[in-house]
Amino acid sequence: MPVTDFTVAEKYKYQNGFGSYFETEAVEGALPIGANNPQKPPYGLYNEKLSGTAFTAPRAENQQSWLQRILPASAHAPFEPREANTFDTNPGVHNREKWHQIPNQLRWDPFDMDETVDWVHSLHLVAGAGDPTMKTGLGIFIFAAGKDMDPREAFYSADGDFLIVPQHGVLDIQTELGKILVRPNEICVIPRGIRYRVNLPEGPVRGYILELYQGHFELPGLGPIGSNGLANARDFQAPVAYFDEDTENEYTLLAKFSGHLFAAKQNHTPFDVVAWHGNYYPYKYDLGRFNTIGSISYDHPDPSIFTVLTAQSDHEGTAIADFVIFPPRWLVAEGTFRPPWYHRNTMSEFMGLIGGQYDAKTGGGFQPAGASLHNVMSAHGPDASTHDKASNADLKPAKVGEGSMAFMFESCLMVGVTEWGLKKCAKVQDDYNAESWEPLKPHFKRPSPAQIPHGSKKQ
Ligand SMILES: O=C(O)Cc1cc(O)ccc1O
Ligand SMILES: [Fe+2]
């Protein structure tokens, strides 16, 4: 069920639609009419373009917004490196950190809360591929924070778009373009460059982030499903313009740039956008609104039917990142082994669990706030206890995943694991294979020799 049903009063106002062209004014008349660069913009504001794609990107892909603000984003002192020895989320490039490329199936126990840090310092890169300096690939982060960001700080990532999946706690996000409240079972996307500040109104938070170093997320094509279904465009919500007015106090702008942290001072608030229009903006989506589609005859379909958002590579149908969910749903397939099949995938699969239990792993080792990684061609599938139950189940219609939400970041890229992800976090389970697949028993019943025309030898 949706988190944001009609009975829950929302703290902030939104405008609805995915990829829509929005206009929003916190002060009526702040957007110039019929021009982007009038000699004298309304109310003495500055206008500023924020480009999310190359100027010359095809019209259908082009993303940008025009911001009407009290002072331009460039009005700050030069950036200085901050925490250069500790803040590095771009392994390989600066040689302090390196990727571990390993074929093992990996599973992590729930990641710890950390109440001592704010949003910026809560970001732990666990896995990824590519390089933000080349605008290729993705980074997968775990976040765990217990402190509000300083009210005089704003953060942005020049490296990519953040797809944020909270698992615990509430994120109150003030962005340049307005405010968004994000709770578990909701997600939000903060595109590259947008400045924001995260408050934690209900205490500690924890969750997952996919940072997309190339392109942007879009809704998957629906093919024969038709014009509605899966995540519907109107359920995506963008903030309305909201601004602070402060040109007296000192603020710090924090930038994540090639995985490193930089800081610059400025003597005015970064949150001074009075109005904006465009199609480059942060947005949120309530996973409870996903219209889940599945087999109503037989067989287990590909999980692509559960794709919420996709970011395509240059090869259509092959994603740099798919965000896929496994919501509560009815399984009715007849004569079918209903959980996921055993498989090896040319794509890599990183999974997390927001709450409840995932129907492919009923053995107990895949827990909320934990994770798993099945890399390119790393074999996986239901654990032995799930196989046993599902092979003998009475195939009545059954609701799976009640109160549960698992998700997958699926990528065509082989993902490496960081030193933190493999060792420092101390959450990798050493009994994943032993618990999941090694206990599987052969059930092969050898037919009579006449039934095996080409022969085979029993050892
Ligand atoms: O491995 C997993 O649990 C994810 C998954 C689910 C599914 O229903 C089919 C394929 C797949 O990779
Ligand atoms: Fe899989």
The tally of strands reads 28
Query: What is the percentage of strand-forming residues?
Result: 25-35%
CATH superfamily heading of the largest domain = Jelly Rolls
**Number of domains in the coordinates?**
2
CATH top level of the largest domain is Mainly Beta
Mean pLDDT: 95
- Would you give the CATH topology of the largest domain? Jelly Rolls
Shape by Cα distribution: globular
Distinct small-molecule ligands in the complex = 2-(3,6-dihydroxyphenyl)acetic acid, fe (ii) ion
Proportion in helices? under 10%
Count of helical regions? 3
**Stretches with pLDDT under 50, minimum 5 residues:** none
CATH architecture of the largest domain: Sandwich
Rg from Cα: 24 Å
Main sheet properties: 9 strands, antiparallel
Strand order of the largest sheet: 1-16-20-13-10-15-8-7-28
Distance between the termini: 54 Å
Briefly note the structural class of the backbone.
mainly beta
List the helices and strands and how they pair.
Layout: E1 14-16, E2 22-25, E3 46-51, E4 64-69, E5 80-82, E6 106-108, E7 123-131, E8 136-145, E9 153-157, E10 161-168, E11 171-175, E12 178-182, E13 186-190, E14 196-199, E15 205-212, E16 236-239, E17 251-257, E18 260-266, E19 273-278, E20 283-286, E21 307-312, E22 319-326, E23 329-331, E24 348-355, E25 371-374, H1 384-392, E26 398-400, E27 405-411, E28 416-417, H2 419-424, H3 432-436
Parallel strand pairs: 9-17
Antiparallel strand pairs: 1-16, 2-19, 3-4, 4-19, 5-18, 6-25, 7-8, 7-28, 8-15, 10-13, 10-15, 11-12, 11-14, 13-20, 16-20, 17-18, 21-22, 22-27, 23-26, 24-25, 24-27
Domain Homogentisate 1,2-dioxygenase N-terminal: 13-287
EC number: 1.13.11.5
Pathway: Amino-acid degradation; L-phenylalanine degradation; acetoacetate and fumarate from L-phenylalanine: step 4/6
